[in-house]
Amino acid sequence: MTIDARNRISRRTLAAGAAWAVPVVTITAAAPHVSASGEVYLTGGDIACKVPGDSCVKNYGLQSGYAVTAQVCSTVPSDVTINFSDATVTLNGVTTTGWAISPNPLDILNTTSGTDCKTVVIGLAGTPNSAEGRISGTIPYTWTAANGQTGTGTFPFSAPTTPPCKNCTPVALDPTPTP
């Protein structure tokens, strides 16, 4: 049997055809999980401020520490109570554990049948405190709804700066105009 050179398939043609025949795998980043039966999750955490000693005790129950903003979102069709565990915090590159959270527990009243989100300020008390700089960390939590549903989650936060709080509020949330 003779093979005619004009009818032969080149290796390049064969490789190109094989490349198009290989199945493609797509990798995507995970979005916050929200199930149809209801979920509670916290997002945000990119705005923070340092709480000067004793000035915001009434607001956060903290003598000194930090305030971090969060969006608490719920798809549970009932009121929810969130209980926080101690946070792990990295402040200016130094990681410490055992940071207390305030308010704890945090009660969220759900007023809608869909997703309901509310902005809250979470207070953090631990050591070291009262230093300005970059803050990040995680706060584990459990939640219990009035309708009996329960769940767990972790709130990651990271703010590039911690300027002093203005009126006990992280600056970006302060409704008072700056002169």
Gyration radius over CA: 25 Å
Strand portion, in percent? 35-45%
Query: What characteristic shape results from the CA principal axes?
Result: elongated
Mean pLDDT: 75
**Tally of helical runs:** 2
| pLDDT < 50 runs, ≥5 residues | 13-36, 174-179
**Which CATH top level class fits?**
Mainly Beta
Structural category: mainly beta
What is the third-level CATH name, the topology?
Answer: Immunoglobulin-like
What's the total number of strands? 9
Number of domains: 1
Distance N terminus to C terminus? 93 Å
Give, in order, the helices and strands. HEHEEEEEEEE
Kindly describe this structure.
The chain is mainly beta and 179 residues long. The protein has a single domain (43-173), classed as Sandwich (Immunoglobulin-like). The chain has two helices and nine strands, in the order αβαββββββββ. The chain has helices at residues 11-21, 57-60; strands at residues 40-51, 65-74, 80-84, 87-91, 94-102, 106-108, 116-125, 135-145, 150-159. Strands 1, 2, 3, 4, 5, 6, 7, 8 and 9 form a nine-stranded antiparallel sheet that branches. It is elongated and about 40 Å long. Residues 13-36 and 174-179 have low confidence and may be disordered.
